[in-house]
Write a structure and sequence with these properties.
Mean pLDDT: 85
Strand content: 25-35%
Largest sheet: 5 strands, mixed
Number of helices: 2
Distance between the termini: 59 Å
Number of strands: 5
Order of helices and strands: EEHEEHE
Shape: globular
Length: about 100
Amino acid sequence: MSANSVEVTVRSPTASTTDLRMKIGLNDTVGEIKQRLFREHPDQPRPDEQRLIFAGRVLADDARTADVLLQYDVSRPQTFHLMTSPSKAASPQRMQS
């Protein structure tokens, strides 16, 4: 791990996936991490459906990783929790009578 990156584990409450380990840059924004999760997470949640939580706080898309982890030991892997809203495409459609 370089001085400009940190290893994080992304935990998702969905039973269909296991934890995802990622190396992210300290200058990456939460929005950029959400884009990567869209590409790399097995469930491919859209960025606008994702909520990343760290230390009990929902992270803003424009927050930088370095600022989020400022008070934590970045030499050790940290854990982000991924919550997703139900996809509009996946929601059941009402039948018209």
